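Model it.
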Amino acid sequence: MSTTTDKTPEGHESTYVLMLRLWHESIRPYFGWILLAVLCMGCMAAATAFSAWLMEPVVNEVFIAENRNLLWPLGGAVFLTFLIKGLANYGQSVLMSFVGFRIIADNQNRLFAHLARMDIAFFHNNSTGKLISRFTVDINQMRVAVSNVLTGFGKDLLSLVGLVSVMFLKDWQLAAISIFIFPLAAVPVLRIGRRMRKVTANTQEEMGLLTTFLEQTFQGIRVVKAYGMEGYEKSRIGGIVERIFKLTLKSARTRAVSSPIMETLGGVAVCVVIIYGGNRVIDGATTSGAFFSFIMALLLAYEPMKRLANLNASLQEGLAGAQRLFALMDTEPAIFEKPDATELTAVKGDIHLDNVYFSYSHGKPALNGISLEVPAGKRVALVGASGAGKTTILNLIPRFYDVNEGNVVIDGINVRDVTFASLFANVALVSQEITLFDDTVRANIAYGRAGASEEDIIKAARNAAAHDFILDLSDGYDTMVGEQGVRLSGGQRQRLAIARAMLKNAPVLLLDEATSALDTESERQVQVALTKLMAGRTTLVIAHRLSTVTSADLIYVIDRGRVMEQGSHQELISQDGAYQRLYNLQFAEDAPAEDAVRTADV
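Modeled.
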């Protein structure tokens, strides 16, 4: 990670530092391939320079001296030169493509591996679109920069050196006059490069924002249409698209500035060569062949010189992406595994929260010194109003978040002292926020346990009351569920999530409104299955419908991050406290609804 001394006055890492890091992390592993590509580029440069050098004997011996004997040798030499150039160009192009695309793949793998280590809070604070933009736009910009730089310093620079050598061999005075003009372009070209990095960074930021908004709009299209917000979303997306248009146009204008500079300087150089060189030919100081060979070398040198002039702009575009990528790669997770972390084995499932304080990033306390116990093998319920801190308690057990103060302990071991893999292996979660992947039903259930057999998958589906509806789907267990299970009903999605947890068969179960989306019959079936699954296992349940937790061994009433009451259902009802008020309020709310249903049925 670079220090502040490695930064430019504007706060951006210097080109040298970024290039050095690119070399060490992305380019150096493929140095052998790059060396082969450079050898091919050297052959191209030599062939290009030789084709210019051949102009002198062609003009002098064939067109002026009319030497018929040299027609075939010179024609053959020209053909062989272009054949070598073509093959070398193919070789360097394939090799550089391999290196470029390998860099994309390597960095995408590195970035995903790094992001997989990040904590939940990181993903809450960084939009999905911006993270995807790093995978696509930024890494691709890096590849273009690397390819352009290596090709520029290989093919173009070597070609330029070869052609300039031919020019000096033919007429060193004329070469010195014509080449002297081009260094004048250095200052404006460097300024263009600095502007390109800034414009590119802003463009990439807006592209990430666009990806985020598009994802949100497409995922929430039902809400958009239901509330007639198409016009609003069109305006919002249109604003971002317009900003991207202006930035990309500014980038194109900035890059295009180098063209008139190089064209003008090229025109000056050719003009000087024609006037000065023409006089030397007329005066007999040089031959027509030597002059035409010089002109051809100059004209051939013009294109690689133009590409080299644009090289800094391309480089700065890529470094803008590299800078954003490296900033993300340098971000360390707030929750990490200790180097000496131990394995959590033979888990009984005795869970303790000891004087736990926790607040999210906005600073408002979610838990205020809460202490509670979940005895091994028991079913414990958390009840209370929304925002009381119930889901936060669940999130602390598998270390989705870390406590600010206090301890979360499983079987006497602090969860911060065990490996992530062993902790996750012993905890299964079913949340009211259902996550299904755009894959088959079978794959979504099998996500609970890698390598599960077909028999185990079907058994889990049966226990979750999902097997029958799965068989009714178009392709059964091979049916694609769509993004977030969009092709299934809410109840069907929930049952697949429960089947996944059943397949995992972990000793600790965390159920956050696990049956909230089920109809009465399906809920009854799942409750029976959950009762079987919870036997001998530690289960922590969050439920807003108190009727689903009346059989719990222990109930905690949570309010404003504290335990207000605890006990069994009967004990809490008899206390005439917060639980009884919640129960009576919910019963009073449910009764009119049930009466309304009965009336409608009549």
